[in-house]
Amino acid sequence: MEKEKTLSKASQSETKFASVQDYKIAYRSIGDGLPIILCNRFRGNLDDWDPAFLDSLAKKYRVITFNHKGLASSTGTPHETILGFGKDAIDLADALKIDKFILGGWSLGGWAAQVITTEFPNRITHTILIGTKPPGKVNHNLEEIFIKTAYIPDYTLEHETILFFEPTSEISRNAAVESHKRIQERENKDPKVRAELWEHYSKSHDDYINDPYNTREKLMKTNVPILIISANHEVCFPPENWFELNQKLPTATLITIAQTGHGPQHQYPEMIARYIDNFIESN
Fold first, then answer.
1. Element (H, E) at 20
2. How far apart are CA 27 and CA 45, in angstroms?
3. 20 to 30 A from 71, CA-CA: which of 26, 44, 198, 265?
């Protein structure tokens, strides 16, 4: 007899809404313990986190994912600054009566996490950055294939493999298939971010590069422990940009993973969760 499939906690988690001023932030919460609030990537919604990664973290932590203001199932007008994107995490924490928390961010969410880490250091105990880049201008840019693929309206498995995995690696290609299956487990899907709203990401990107908050310099003086998780072939944000800051970031730990792409937490969900837990326990 075929074994009955058991859905993960993340796949079954309820979408809730936190009221912030005149709009609502859609979020999901699983697990107990110290709270981890995760900021999402370009075009990412509540369904775009691999449930195996969230479930692995939720064994020890309260894991909170959310949609930024005005995107997917959150209401309001989307932000046009990276500080605005990051401030959503603070506003959500306030609505949930969370004082201090671990802040995580993937890709564009990692930009938001860095700005918030330096603007609200008393609220953040640890910062986890996945597949992202430092603020300001960088010397190593994304590859053209990422831009061509990232703006395709509906991603297929092939597109996801290009964007978040390492297409030249059989290990990574196989992991892409499994991660895709896990993400598709959920029955009640979150709305996608509409294409006409994508320009808000571009404006926040310009804001991040211009760095009016002086985030880059503030990171060199922060006391908040920072874990940076990258890949040997980051089609979007090459780890070389972090290598150049290795001598300047006093609290940062950098991990790069072989045969992996822009979404290492999708390829190795349990392992990345263990790295994060070990880092938090040790700092």
1. strand 16-20
2. 10
3. 265
Res 113 pLDDT > 80: yes
In DSSP terms, 230 is beta-bridged to 256
C-alpha to C-alpha distance for 197 and 199, rounded to whole angstroms = 5
Q: What is the pLDDT of residues 237-272, one digit of tens each?
A: 999 999 999 899 999 999 999 999 999 999 999 999
Identify the H or E element spanning 101. strand 101-106
Separation CA 263–CA 165 (nearest Å): 6
| Polymer length in residues for the chain | 283
Going along 167-272, which residue ranges are E strands? Answer: 226-231, 252-257
Sorted by where each begins, the domain ranges of the chain are 9-282
Closest by CA position to 110, among listed 239, 197, 196 = 239
Find how far residue 219's CA is from the centre of its chain. 19
Task: Count the neighbouring beta carbons within 10 Å of the beta carbon of residue 113.
Answer: 28
Q: What's the pLDDT tens digit per position in 156-199?
A: 999 999 999 999 999 999 999 999 999 999 999 999 999 999 99
H or E stretch at 239: none
Asked if residue 38 lies in contact with residue 130, where contact means CB atoms within 8 angstroms, the answer is no
Tokens of 163: 């964007």
* pTM more than 0.90: yes
**If 0-12 CB within 10 Å is exposed, 13-18 middle and 19+ buried, where does residue 232 land?**
middle
pLDDT at residue 200 tops 50: yes
pLDDT for residue 112: 98
The HSE-up count of residue 235 (CA atoms within 13 Å, CB side) is: 23
CATH architecture of the domain covering 9-282: 3-Layer(aba) Sandwich (3.40)
CA 157, 14, 17: angle at the middle one, nearest 5? 105
